[in-house]
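Amino Acid Chain and Its Fold in Token Form
===========================================
Structure side: the spatial fold of the chain, written down as a series of whole-number tokens.
Position: the record begins directly beneath this header, with no further notes in between.
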Amino acid sequence: LISDFQKNIQNEEIIKIIRSQTTRAYGLAIKKMKENMSLSELRLTNGDNNIKDMKSIEIYLSQNNQTLIPPVAYINLNGKQVGRAGINKNGYGHFYFSALENDNIPCVVTCSEDEYPEDNIRYLVIKNNAKIKILCVKENNEIDYHIKALRAMERIMPTVISPQKLTSIDFNDFDMIWFSNLYLLNPNMMEKIKTFSKSKPVFITSGKDLASPNGWETITGDLSPMKKEDAYFRVKNIPGISTDEDLRIIQYYQSSLKDKNIIWELATGDPLLMEAEKNIYLLLSPFHFEWNEMGLSPYFTRVISRVIEKMLSVRDLSYEIGETIPIKEPFSKVISPSGEQYQVKDEFNNTMTPGFYSIESANSRTVFAVNIPKNECVQLEINTNNIDMLKWDGVNISDIEKQIKGRNSQTIFYILALLFIVFEMVLLKKGERTK
């Protein structure tokens, strides 16, 4: 396998196939020969909490030469450069700006162009939701402390109903659905929720009392409770929290799901919040004080706000090349970055070009961004266990042959040919003596 062996989906899939179908695999690493800076991710968040209507663009950059002068990112809104942001040694920078009046604002962030210009640019759509409408599903006797936190947020408009009243609700009136437990719902309702998740996020919580059978098991996996006596589980990483001491997890569920997108992680390595399926998020410790004390942290509302923003803005308006885009209104028109137009019935999958796409229908117009996958931009080496890595000076192919076969096969051929010639001459001489 000749590859750059960078940690991305393509390389991981290729190596997985090679390991399953070969008894011995050899790898030859071809690295990018020139210095490269790569914009790997953009995140839109609320800015300074002390300033109303302030937003921030968080910028993540990777480079293969850490000795370079820290780079600068340039921010363009609506086609005009509005500022720049310095990037620190950890590859992070941010840019603050006032919230814009218009919706669906195209934002382009660039860094200095190098020999690989494809990853020197990244696209983002800024969506200005005055209010985020969340449908909160919970039983009347359940005490979930996150409901009070949602009501305390200026931008959030929660509507609380019981599972029994779901049939009377039009899901299209809401931006996301939040379940406080794994309620047992009929198949038609489960299908309706799955359809909703194609375009908007669904947040489900493994409640304190699991229903039997678990009607969500195909999404949640097999769940088993974990608890420490007289001790807390430590949270390893949650954005927005200054110290893990503020977050105390008393008990949680361990899921059998593997290789999922982990949003919040425990020090045990188990997920606390993860994306169980595309656009369906699973919380494994319900917001009850007998399960965790996250609600006692002064940062709790900030954490909830960040995760809601992530679920809504990132999934809704930002995609990776090759991803399929769900179309809400049938027979909409999609316009690509190059101006090509497509009539689409229910989904659009011709997203191989990075840039801004627009979806136009009789009632609305939406802009979304398509980028190179994050894993293609982060410059980390992949795990090459079970692959014999070869070394090459870039000149002599014989060096590779020696490593694979133990010695130069061409030399062996010449030696064998010479032995055959000598042996033939000996036979000829013996034949002459016999005559």
Summary: The two ends are 58 Å apart (CA to CA). The first helix runs from residue 9 to 21. Helices lie at 9-21, 146-152, 187-196, 217-220, 300-317, 374-377, 398-405, 409-434.
